[in-house]
Amino acid sequence: MREPAFRGLFALPPGVDFAHEFVTGFLDRMAGQPPEAMARVTIYANAARTLAELKCAFDLRGPLLLPRLLPVTNLDIPSLLDQPEAAPLARRLQLARLVAGLLKTRPDLASGHSIAALARSLADLMQEMQSEGLAPDALEGIDTGDHARHWQNALVFLRIAAQFHLDGPPMDRAARQRLAAETLLHDWSRGVGLPDGPVIVAGSTGSHGATRLFMQAVASLPEGAVVLPGFDFDQPQSVWDGLDHASEDHPQARFAPLIRALGRPARWTATPPPAPARNRLVSLALRPAPVTDQWIAEGPRLPDLIAPTEGLTLIETEQPGQEAEVIALILRDAAERHAPATLIAADGNLIRRVSAALDRWRLCPDESAGQPLSLTGHGLFLRQIAALFGETLSIDRLLVLLKHPLALTGSPLVGANEARLLARDLELELRRNGPAFPDGECLRNWASRGDALRKTWAEWLADMLDRITPLAQDRAPRPLPDRLRDLIRLADALAAGPGGDAAASRLWQEREGALLRSTMDHLAEHAAQGPDLGAQDFCALLLDELHQQSVRIDGDAHYLHIRGPREARIVGHGLVILSGLNEGGWPQQLTPDPWLSRQMRLAAGLPLPERQIGLAAHDFQQAMGLDQVILTRARRDAEAETIPSRWLNRLTNLMGGLPERNGPQALAAMRARGDAWLALAAAVSRPARALPPCPRPAPIPPAPPFRDLPVTDVSLLIRDPYAVYAKRVLGLRPLPALRPEPDAALRGQTLHSIVEAWLGTRPDPGMTHAALKARFLALTAAILERDVPWPAARAFWAARMERIADRIVADELVRLAEGRPVIVETRGKVSLGGMDFTLTAKPDRIDLLHDGRVMIYDYKSGKPPTDKQIAAFDKQLILEAAMARRGGFDAIGPVDVAGIRYIQLGGEGETQIREHSPDLEDENWEGFVRLIAAYLAGDTGFTSMRAPEQTSYVGDYDHLARFGEWSLADAPHVEKVGAEQGNGA
């Protein structure tokens, strides 16, 4: 009787091409058998990607009758055929209903999580219990006496949820998988229902209980084999014996239960790994923490480390952006040589950075994970529309929708390019004139001032805003099907555009649109089983569902690949880059379990969260065994210094401590090879020629640079002349913010409007304090309601005005007793003799006193300037006084000035007197005339930041002046500019 071709536990070492080496061993064992014998074999692989690689490996061997290739995660037995499998989404929505009910009574258990996030974590926990074969009573043995109240309350709910979810017939894939594995193990061990041919499990680590059980069942078959990936043949038996639940973070920990049950595996093939000595080094570096003292004993027995590490390169950059740049350069080099190269990355942000950097050379690698649907244009469009519910529509939210490539793509009346142009025009209108929260009325007003195309587009948009504006109040929980229906209808309308059809738009077209449609249809199919959701929880659910779907990116550079860590076992040749080797990057940070603590998981018989670390470590160990490996990390991220990955730390520490094995020299050589790539990346980023920094500008435009200047700009002319040049000569104005905020500027404008309206009522000096205060507060409330659409800011500013109202009113009655306001926000001007120049002003208030003189007031929402500041640069009131004396205001003519005062609309609301005299007035006027004459004559350059009051000063035109390329210590570069130089003004 011939020996079975397949029997027992086998393994392949790290670094070998698992799929191709598996096929080699398989065909060697099938040698001499008839071709049809191969078709009797069933091979279970750990993932679809492994199955694809196995098929490719078989294809390379020529025409063959292939074995049956099946995923190990989809076991079936006859008893399950008549029992339908529940949709995971439906089951998750059922759990979400339980979670929503819990949070109504115990909102503290949410801990900042959404219902969708809690439901998914709960579903994952239920799936884990099913895979490990744990019934609801496993939770009964948990003692929470020494746990915090949070865990006790969570466990009470968890027991209820487990009874609901786990009892009854197996409806979930994990439960069916466990039942199938238990049934097959039970039947096969008794010789019942044996398969009609050999069975092999290939590429699985047995990390899930059900899969591990099935692997044990297969290995015990007369013709059954299990082939483990990345098995550490160099690890001593004493270490294997010590791997238990406390060693979950070790890369080989998943194999320990199988070895205890089935014995040590045999080698599947005799092919050695590409770097056997390196495998020994990595094996020793990754020993469990309690036995790292073996470094001292076994380290000196390692071979010389120069040769094993010749294929290793270590690159440590300063920033993640630099890491992405150097990775892209390495991939570009491989593409130029048409050599295969694979980037293995766990960090999605790093992958996106690398893809963006490769785009400069128009290289698009094949990316197995694809792009999450939530980050595609279609997914973002739907998420942005969902965010309209429960939130007031702001300018930026509106423009994000209008400028989206999917918006208005179904309209026959307005083309896509025309729609973008109209959106730009509307943006400028809203930035400059508001309102901060657009509505249908403002759009119709804007439409009436445009052509026919604008009217068509803006009137459609106004109708859309009539639908969108009320959604700001839609915050309360509503049935999930209703929310989903409202979302789809609004998305269809925005994609259709004026007179358009959603079916003709791009919303549901292309690969991304088709996937989005199927995802929404699937959600709609099961939405009735979900809970009522508020707007924020609905957005979280939508994001969660979209994030689970991916759009595959088929690269045109087929020799460049981007893979996730789980696919390290199927990377068999070419250059491999292991990136993001920092704690929190690879391995990624563990997600906190909101339901069970570590001690509670142990008591329930569940694996510890560190199992994910162990799986990631196994991926790392497998990739490290390849021939050419580049390790990369960034020393800093956006917030702080990073910590090297624990595996990289162990490797470098071990090598650094083995001078007798040339470890430090080998490590230095790895870093030197990395430094060479860093130098190349720096050279690529370096401009072809060095550009000298711009000097500190002091332009002299053709005379005269301007013919008028408001008095409020005089202080700017003293402090930052370049800002006046940019504003008055070049005619540049800062673009208002896309999202208006209740900032200091708006506060000042609003408070001035209140006082102007108050004075416009012509208060009588005979009014009582109470009556004048009531009028003041009534106007305050009305103007705040009109001009400040932010409730919090409105309430805060109203309280501020109410606090100072008594002082303002009392001082106002004193002012009214001394005179009456004759100028309130009225323009005046004075021309300078012998110069083609006019100084203009718009005083807040000028009172005509009973003695015929005037008092000049200025309202300040902030801190009024001191006498020293007035003497140095703040010339507004003193120059307004000089203008009044020279007849600059028609309502009063030439008049003597009694003084200048500031009325503070903040603080204590006090009126502050500043130094004033005719001599001081004349002195400032003469100084102003000399200053203007110098600029008008073209003798003085408009120096940038000539005399800033503080070094922290930030001007509106600093970027235009290229501040940062020069400092305040640099001398101004005086240069004539304008038409005379042939380069324009």
| Shape, principal axes of CA atoms | elongated
In DSSP terms (H or I, runs of 4 or more residues), the helix count works out at: 34
State the oligomer: single chain
Low-pLDDT runs: none
Beta strands, count: 23
Question: Span from first to last CA?
Answer: 100 Å
Radius of gyration: 38 Å
> What does the main sheet amount to?
7 strands, mixed
Question: Could you say which structural class the secondary elements and strand pairing correspond to?
Answer: alpha/beta
Beta-strand share of residues? 5-15%
Q: What does the average pLDDT come to?
A: 91
Strand ordering within the main sheet? 7-13-12-8-11-9-10
Helical content band: 40-55%
Structural commentary:
This protein is α/β, with parallel strands linked by helices. It contains 34 helices and 23 strands. The strands form five sheets. It has a seven-stranded mixed beta sheet, with helices on both faces. β2, α3 and β3 form a beta-alpha-beta unit. α25 packs across α26. It is elongated.
Topology record:
Layout: E1 8-11, H1 18-30, H2 35-39, E2 42-45, H3 48-59, E3 68-71, H4 88-105, H5 115-131, H6 149-166, H7 173-189, E4 199-202, H8 209-219, E5 224-228, H9 237-242, H10 256-262, E6 266-267, H11 276-285, H12 294-298, E7 312-317, H13 320-336, E8 341-344, H14 348-358, E9 365-372, H15 377-386, H16 395-402, H17 416-433, H18 440-447, H19 452-468, H20 480-496, H21 510-526, H22 535-547, E10 550-553, E11 557-563, E12 575-578, H23 598-604, H24 611-624, E13 628-634, H25 646-656, H26 663-685, E14 696-700, E15 708-710, H27 714-719, H28 721-729, H29 744-760, H30 769-787, H31 791-818, E16 819-823, E17 828-831, E18 838-841, E19 845-849, E20 854-860, H32 867-872, H33 876-885, E21 897-904, E22 911-914, H34 918-936, E23 972-976
Parallel strand pairs: 1-5, 1-6, 2-3, 2-4, 4-5, 7-13, 8-11, 8-12, 9-11, 12-13, 14-23, 15-18, 20-21
Antiparallel strand pairs: 9-10, 16-19, 17-18, 19-20, 21-22
